[in-house]
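Predict the 3D structure for this chain.
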Amino acid sequence: MLVQRETDFQELGALRYPVIVKPNDEGSSKGIRDGPIADDPAGARRRCEHLLRCYGCPALVEEYIAGTEITVGLLGNTPQERILGVMEVAPVNRDPRFVYSLEAKRDWRHCVSYHVPPLLDAGTVAQIEAAATRAFRLLGCRDFARMDFRLDRSGSLFFLECNALPGLDPANSDMVFLSKNVLTYQQLVQGILTEAAVRQAAPGR
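Done. Predicted structure below.
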């Protein structure tokens, strides 16, 4: 649910807990620091109040899905978009309530292990790739994007979010890490620019 004002707090009691609380309008894990999970409505309210005060945007409150963190990179434009890679983000400490927080991203060498391809069977990977492509098309993404998922302990797949403008820092960005087996960094950046140029030159534009 989206919490935009104080009157929204009364609806927090109807949610299934635990939940994760994060800014609705930010990216690159901004606002997702240590401790973003709330176990009850009171904790969710405190977290929402903090985010509303610090970031001045609505807070997004979602059921926390414990399980395997997966991210998928795509390049191109519908119907020719293609999967660049599927990556599993695994916590080094095996924390069952792992969150890919700002702290984890800043200190990724000590906090997480990146598995490309993920440590999953081929059928599950194919399911994830199909879901990522479907999300890319339904959301109207252009040129490139990164889709985040969680796979729970029962094997159910949950779509978390779309990163329509994912980071491209060569030293610490997921999009760069997951595509390294198929593209150099220069090829990745050039590919994005080429896709945008082709799209802009399409008939009718």
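The chain has a mean pLDDT of 93.
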